[in-house]
Design a protein that fits this description.
mainly alpha; 234 residues; 71% helix; single chain; Four Helix Bundle (Hemerythrin (Met), subunit A)
């Protein structure tokens, strides 16, 4: 019997979207269990934004970019060896570990930044969401792992946020890391955020090198868009 590829793609995309929502609920549980209280306004504001933006963006992706979501949920044999090490560390720290650290800070009443920094964090968080969502909608090759997608005839994307930096999705993660440090406001969360940024910088460098060596047209693209991650910096 012939398989309806469109139907299967949407099923896989929906499955991945549900996985992401569950991932976020686990992150919330990590925070609440570590905090030992439900009475933390800053935490609830953060997770409200986190869930609201996730649900809206996933709904839009399911409707108009189901193929991209479907591919992001797949595992591939040709994922680069270095990414098989970096990605699990990144996922554990970004989606779970940092919330445990933030929760412990609430439980132990660690010193916090003033509320003014919390509002700065909200503004940065909203900016990070633009760079986390826009590249995924612009780039159908935006997968979760680093590899050359010969099976999907990968090409260089030069539109949208890719006119600003070469890895705008990673730019979004860097901005988010700074935002969450301000929103939870403790030194420990700031240190965890710094580790996330270091991982992203390493991953950006390695992925950029991979694309230069293995993706046709990418070297020419780097001559037009000169910055990997942050305009005028790197």
């Amino acid at each position: 019997m012939k398989v309806d590829n469109t139907k299967e793609t949407r099923r896989q995309a929906a499955k991945y979207a549900v996985t992401l929502i569950i991932q976020r609920f686990i992150g919330l549980a990590c925070f609440l269990l570590a905090a030992g209280t439900l009475l933390n306004l800053q935490g609830w504001i953060y997770f409200f934004l986190y869930f609201m933006i996730s649900v809206v963006s996933l709904a839009v992706m399911l409707k108009s970019h189901a193929e991209t979501l479907s591919e992001r949920g797949k595992k591939h044999d040709n994922t680069k060896g270095w990414d098989k090490i970096l990605l699990p560390i990144f996922v554990l720290l970004t989606f779970y570990g940092i919330y445990v650290i933030a929760g412990i800070g609430v439980r132990l009443s660690w010193n916090r930044l003033s509320m003014e920094w919390f509002y700065v964090g909200i503004a940065l968080y909203l900016v990070s969401c633009i760079f986390n969502i826009w590249p995924v909608m612009e780039n159908k090759h935006f997968e979760s792992t680093s590899r050359i997608q010969n099976d999907r005839v990968q090409s260089v994307i030069t539109t949208g946020p890719y006119r600003i930096v070469r890895h705008p999705g990673y730019t979004g993660i860097v901005i988010w890391s700074i935002a969450i440090a301000f929103m939870f406001g403790t030194l420990a969360v700031g240190i965890a955020s710094a580790f996330i940024i270091i991982i992203i910088c390493i991953r950006t460098y390695l992925e950029d090198t991979m694309l230069k060596n293995e993706l046709t047209g990418y070297t020419e693209y780097t001559k037009i868009v000169k910055y990997r991650l942050l305009p005028f910096i790197w």
